[in-house]
Amino acid sequence: MPSNKSVSDAPITQFVNCRILRGSRLQREDLWVRSGSILDPEKLFFDEQGYADDRVDCEGSIMAPGFIDVQINGGYGVDFSEASEDVSAGVSLVSKKILQHGVTSFCPTLVTSPAAVYHKVLPQVKVHDGGAHGAGVLGLHLEGPFISAEKKGAHPERFLRTFQAGGIDDLMAAYGSLDNVAMVTLAPELAGSQSVVRELCRRGVTVSLGHSVANLSQAEEAVDQGASFITHLFNAMLPFHHRDPGIVGLLTSDRVPSGRTVFYGMIADGIHTNPAALRIAHRAHPEGLVLVTDAIMAMGLPPGRRTLGQQVIEIQGLHAYVAGTKTLSGSIATMDTCVRHFKHATGCSVEEALEAASLHPAQLLRLHHKGNLDYGSDADLVLLDDDLNLKATFISGEEVWKKAP
Amino acid sequence: MRLVILDDYDLASEWAAKYIRNRIIQFKPTAERCFTLGLPTGSTPYSCYQKLIEYYRSGDISFKYVKTFNMDEYVGLPRAHPESYHSYMWNNFFKHIDIDPANVHILDGNAEDLEAECQAYEDKIAEAGGIEMFVGGIGPDGHIAFNEPGSSLVSRTRVKTLAKDTIVANARFFGNDLSKVPSMALTVGVGTVMNAKEVVILITGAHKAFALYKAIEEGVNHMWTVSAFQQHPRTIFVCDEDATLELRVKTVKYFKGTSVLAVLLPGLSLSNCILCVCVCVLDISLQQLFQSTSHLIGVLMGTKRCVVWNLGKVGTGPTLDIKGVCMNKGWRCIMRPACVCIWQLIDCRSLLDVGYNKAKPCA
């Protein structure tokens, strides 16, 4: 074909010989990309009389939207909750490293910390697009400090807070600013939380329920006010009880307003949740399942003792505990490992496993141009083999990581 | 006209696809001299398109210098609608091949001025030097493109209201809801298709049998518009057995007897010097034809009267471009093996005339 430049200056890339995840099915279709977005080739053909400038042979691989991790505390020695002078450097390091796990966008997560840490760290982390430099930052996930003391998990008790004045003042006092914040995890049984949930949702911040002893009606009340996520289901909440299912009951609650979905994070590392429990949740409410890593700074590092936020933790094999206890303090599994384990444990289809790591988190955060391969969406892609091992990662159509041969 | 009858839909599609492929290859299209191809839509040509895509993928043919003109398009249906003919052509053909989008022409059913669009289409055809080969199908009511019964046999590209039969036939693509089927379409005229140098009509299935009967065994009639091609100098009707169900046995026998099929078995190459020829001959034993024949290899596609020959080693002779072998009326003498010559066959009747007991050197 002669040069295409007369049709558009931006080069058009055609990914051939791949099976793309579209419409919840793997289809044998080519994927076309121009200027970082997925292109409709039929429109290109008839409207612009254009064709591809470059062809990339995917060798029969599966092509899925890039993974989105909405709960990741750090990795490779970087702890997002640590008030260092150069937080953005740490975020950049992690964002670059997680490309090899197929993560193209993420929410750097901060555990319960003193106000001083929030006031220092938050202004340094900005929402920005991904690229060759690393995965995109969708906004911060603030897990705490407005959580329950009884379900603090690995969070330091002395920095937990409750709502005093109610409303936005408490949030501002704790965090300093809500710019660049994508999600807040709180316990809905805390007095005064209703107005806080409402206010956060009004500002476009996703509200998640977690580290809580709320019963089902308290949880439903929060969902009514706009809460739409559950932080690491089963962990740090009351266990399911048949007369009061607690937060877990939201999966099948009939009080969720119609047209809305309650999403729930699952750490599918094989440790945080028994596979049987994972299957129960998946079967009860498959469309709401969001895979998260909840990875801590030790992810990617060799075993030993490390610091997470204000606490010391111990890594033993694939487990990470609060030092001296058997309380899990976060996982060190990578996102692609979670996807594979999830598929293996639940016996779900490849499409479902991939959607749990891409489409569902994008739907949770109301990002319509991410998490899918529809025309017009961002060309954040991963190439995988049939066993869901990563072969390459692309952001805006550009290859940003490739598996070494 | 020629009536080529194959056993079933797949074989008919394959025959047609090979014919189209070979004609394009023979034509040797270039940037200055494109091969203009008229194309149909619908369920009948689907398998033919699949085959052509296969031939493109295996490197047998390129569509780089092929210009296409589709027959028709619905009026008022959004171009991106899955049932529009633009969508059909993109999904079932264009997206799989190397055609230049600038060489593709399909009527725009959403044009502001439909009449101007039709006139412009005729002009584009004329500009391209006319259509070399128009491939088409036939409706159950005998229409070609959307030239419904009653259309003028000298008509040009224009807007047509669809007949009830056509709407009913197409309802299956619109969830069997008649109200969703477009009621008007832009279509090339009968005259437009008659202007093509060659016309290939694909007719398969028992539901088309009556239309085929009306088209070729009755007179030229505007109620069965495809009958107009009785007056075209070069028309081929490619059909399967089911489509011949309403024809007279005499007609079918006549056309089966005169068809000559040259098929080359895939996977065999010149290097091992086996050239397979498949010939359909009426009641003639080909054993008598060549004195130095080796053995029969098998029975091939077509009318079950075909045989395949192992013709022995190739001696010195001109090299052959197997892909260029013409499937049309016969095939040229292509090599002179030491012991056997391959005949130039016009049709089987000339085989009888020549006196097939002796091998003769080719002219």
Automatic annotation (TrEMBL), chain A:
Binding-site residues, Zn(2+): 143, 211, 232
Residues that coordinate or bind substrate: 154, 235-236, 243, 272, 328-330
Positions of the catalytic residues: 294 (proton donor/acceptor)
Cofactor-binding details, from the entry: Binds 1 divalent metal cation per subunit.
Keywords: Carbohydrate metabolism, Hydrolase, Metal-binding
GO BP terms in the entry: N-acetylglucosamine catabolic process; N-acetylneuraminate catabolic process; negative regulation of UDP-N-acetylglucosamine biosynthetic process
EC annotation from Swiss-Prot or TrEMBL: 3.5.1.25
Reactions it catalyzes: N-acetyl-D-glucosamine 6-phosphate + H2O = D-glucosamine 6-phosphate + acetate
Domain Amidohydrolase-related: start-end pairs: 62-400
Cofactor(s) required, per the database record: a divalent metal cation
Pathway(s) annotated for this protein in UniProt: Amino-sugar metabolism; N-acetylneuraminate degradation
Protein's UniProt keywords contain Acetylation: no
GO molecular-function terms, A-Z: metal ion binding; N-acetylglucosamine-6-phosphate deacetylase activity
Keyword Transcription regulation in annotation: no
Lineage: superkingdom: Eukaryota
NCBIfam families recorded: nagA (TIGR00221)
Similarity comment: family membership: Belongs to the metallo-dependent hydrolases superfamily. NagA family.
Protein name per its UniProtKB record: N-acetylglucosamine-6-phosphate deacetylase
Organism of origin: Gasterosteus aculeatus aculeatus (three-spined stickleback)
Lineage: Eukaryota, Metazoa, Chordata, Craniata, Vertebrata
Automatic annotation (TrEMBL), chain B:
GO BP term, example: carbohydrate metabolic process
Primary site of residence: cytoplasm
Assigned EC number: 3.5.99.6
InterPro entries given in the database record: Glc/Gal-6P_isomerase, Glucosamine6P_isomerase, NagB/RpiA_transferase-like
Enzyme class: hydrolase
Compartments, record wording: Cytoplasm
Region forming the signal peptide: none
Cross-referenced Gene3D superfamilies: 3.40.50.1360
Keywords: Carbohydrate metabolism, Coiled coil, Cytoplasm, Hydrolase
Residues forming coiled coils: 104-131
GO MF: glucosamine-6-phosphate deaminase activity; identical protein binding
Domain Glucosamine/galactosamine-6-phosphate isomerase residues, every copy: 14-232
GO cellular component entries: cytoplasm
Pfam families: Glucosamine_iso (PF01182)
Subunit architecture: Homohexamer.
Family: Belongs to the glucosamine/galactosamine-6-phosphate isomerase family.
Name this polypeptide is given: Glucosamine-6-phosphate deaminase 2
Organism: Gasterosteus aculeatus aculeatus (three-spined stickleback)
